[in-house]
Amino acid sequence: MAYSAIVEQWAEYGVGMAIFILRIIARIKIVGFKGFTGDDYLVPFAMLFYTLQLVSHQIMHDNGLIIAIKPDTYYKDFTDSQRDRAQLGGKANILSWISYTSLIWTLKGCMVFLYYRLTAGLKARKFVHITAGVILASYVGIILMILLNCRPLSKNWTSPYGTEYCVNNIPHFAVIGPINVVTDIMLLCIPLPLIIRAKLPLRRKLVISVLLGGGFFLIIAVILNNLFSLMYKFDGLYGTFNGDFIQFGMENPSFVLSWGTRETFVAVLVVNAPCIKPLISSSVWLKVRNKTLTKVSKHSIHSLRARTPLPPNNNNNNLKLEELERGADSESIMSEYRRDPSFNSKRAMLSPSSSNEDERRSISFLPVYEMHKGT
């Protein structure tokens, strides 16, 4: 079967939506609906924008793109039906830009909320606030640019009345691409110092780096998307009209649009991976939990009990330790610990000055990341 760009896009969309659903299941399993935070509420919006992006791509695949038409050359030879289809494709192009930007920036917002939880009590939280402000301001600015780049808005899909500047969307690539990369770099600058300072085995650091440092892959995807899209715009901008749909050189518009879909697919995978990890690993942790408690945690807990008065309900404390090993949300766990009378004494014993490194490793605020606030 011949390669189909639009089929590839829908296949990636299906996998991406499955990833979103897995994330929701993981969060419900780990923290419950009551433990949902800002990023969990952004996920439905991300799913909506993802769907709109693929719908707009399908419309452009079926009807063509106005940006592939050279003004006063082919457009004047169109029939009324062909002209209507070309303009419908141009309108879908605007929807595609808006949905693409909204999806990418919503996913950035999810990462901001995740890092906000991870940096509780750390100086890095101030940079999280700055990054959040830059992301919000850049999103508003980009949406305004898309809508106001050409006035009236209809110039974006009419030809020959519209100009090449309007219908070719070159300003969109020139503005959105660099801002996208800059904000991704800002997001990367939040977890990397924490990972570097964390006193963890190299293998675990590498796993955490892949989970929280996936922005590197996303930056590469952004660059490739802009590079190949612009290359096809300049090399095959004024392709031929074959009487059925408008083409970019030898490929239909779906080939160019597929790079945008690949970028969003990578973004969906990178952003949701940290939240899905506990769900994937929980079965493994359950199998090794007894061994872990016997070799390390059991000794550490007995040591803590010998030095620290525990509340009467010891089973509740054991349950909290099990929740931590499953990767429960740090915010909800910490709030529960703060209500525990023994929390302050435990925290003091788990400080960097503690002589028992096993104790510090056996009680971790977030096993997925296992970064200690004292490091």
Automatic annotation (TrEMBL):
Residues 320-329 have a biased composition (Basic and acidic residues). The chain crosses the membrane at residues 13-30, 42-60, 94-115, 127-149, 169-194, 206-228, 265-286. GO terms for cellular component: membrane. Belongs to the SAT4 family. Residues 22-280 form the Rhodopsin domain. It comes from Orbilia javanica. It is a multi-pass membrane protein. This is Rhodopsin domain-containing protein. It is found in: Membrane. Residues 304-366 are annotated as: Disordered. InterPro entries: Rhodopsin_dom_fungi, SAT4-like. Keywords: Membrane, Transmembrane, Transmembrane helix.
